[in-house]
Amino acid sequence: MPLLLLLCLILACLPIDWPAPPFGLGPAGSAILTGTVVVGLLVIARLFSFTTVSRLAHVPRDRVAIGRGHGLRRLAYFFLNLAGFGLMLTSCGWAFTANQLMSVGDWLLPGAEILVLAPYLITLIGSWAIFFDAEQALHRSSPDPAVNSEFWTRWGYVFFLLRYHVLVFIPLGFTIVQLGILRVAPTILDAPWGQVITLVGLIAFIVLVPSLLPLLLGLRPMPPGRLRTRIEAAAQRLGVRYHNLYIWQTRGSLATAMVAGLTPRLRQIVFTDLLLATLSEDEIEAVFGHEVGHVKHRHLLYYATFLLVSSLTMWVVYQAVQQMPGLSAVSKNAGLLLSTFATGAYLFLAFGFVSRRCERQADVFGCKAVSCPDPECRGHTAETALVAGGKGLCRTGVGTFVRALERVDEINGTSNNSMSARRGLFGRMAGILRLVGVWLGAWQHSTIAKRVAFLRTLAEDPRRERRFQQRVTALRWGLLLLLTGAVVAIVALHGWQPLLEAV
């Protein structure tokens, strides 16, 4: 869903000819209409939050079902908020009004897009402050001592979510800056040096942003102790280097881990507080092995290369399409909309497809990280020697990582196993919404249920792992070759000069 949100916000920032306010209303009338929609959305958020708090107070024994219902309402509000923002931009004429207010003559001031986005940002941040009541009530009523720790204050919770959305706001901010620069110097990309600077900036962004994660997310180094010593020993055994191990304080609201950084000097490995408080040390080591798997299989470097080559391919394709006869009749608005949706669909389908396979590769390495040399082993003891370099796979290692995945699924509330079907119109609508949420949430990682099912097939027959690795390797390189071939073919047909002149 962060990808969908990012695409929608970027679309709102594009230089589209937005419709004027209806009924001949001026800026004041447009602002009143927009404000009315904002207030309506915040009222809905308040009703959703109140429903959760009220039900939890009256029927505390149904906490699990109430929590699932609250999750569905928040998902529904996400789509409702985006729809409301679209209504503000079009039917309320807010985008037109904001651009008019930020114009000096024919020149649009830098950062004008922030005013266009302001109503959505108000409803987004306001809804976080409103939903805090429900989140706090669910947190306090949890029977799990790992979850039921000290929760955020209201504005601490809002600030936490702002940090959580940093990977949406940073590229959005770069887009706004780029649009502002292009308005001031519209021919900057016509010169080769301008295109080189753009490419270098994109590469620098990919390389350097991970080093800012401790600051952006408020991470703190993992303190010395038994767990850190064990993870450091596992890192040495698996042959991976990193800058530091970090803990992400989420006040018991999120269980996950991640790795970021293309080089050891910039590489950060992060665990959330809830994950460390909930999993056993064996399971934490297996999760660490999963993150190491991304490094050992060079997924981060592959993702960076894939996105760069994809950007070049899409740019060449777009320039070639613009030269097709009859395309001059397509309006600027239609061109911007189609190119944005095409980019989003490509990322969702192509990058999501390869990312899910890479995630399974990392899952397999997570199993190997806690495996012994005996594929048929039935359990490890304190004296069991684990395989160095992640070069072995045993049943116990698979079982350890599977338990970690299932526990993460349970405490994050993403499991569908306990969701009972409801009858009636609202039940069917809830079921559709749930499926959409799972589909969007799993586009990059697949569902944990599918990941677990795949790993269990490896425990039954370890020989399948080699065939799987061969298929994923062929897929990864095949996609890069396909993209590169598309660029070469288009350039061979059109030549570089016409494509550069079409910018």
Which range does the strand content fall in? under 5%
Mean pLDDT: 85
- What is the share of helical residues? 55-70%
Query: Could you list the spans in which at least 5 consecutive residues all have pLDDT below 50?
Result: 417-421
Can you count the beta strands? 6
Strand order of the largest sheet: 3-4-6-5
**Structural class category:** mainly alpha
Give the topology string: H per helix, E per strand: HHHHEEHHHHHEHEEEHHHHHHHHH
Write up what this structure looks like.
- This protein has two domains: 2-186, no CATH class; 215-501, no CATH class.
- It has 19 helices and six strands.
- The chain has helices at 2-13, 27-58, 63-90, 94-101, 112-140, 154-164, 166-184, 192-208, 213-217, 226-238, 273-278, 281-296, 299-322, 332-368, 395-411, 424-441, 448-460, 463-494, 496-501, and strands at residues 103-104, 107-108, 220-221, 244-248, 257-260, 268-272.
- The strands form two sheets. Strands 3-4-6-5 form a four-stranded mixed β-sheet.
- Helix 2 packs across helix 4, helix 12 (281-296) crosses helix 15 (395-411) and helix 13 (299-322) runs antiparallel to helix 14 (332-368).
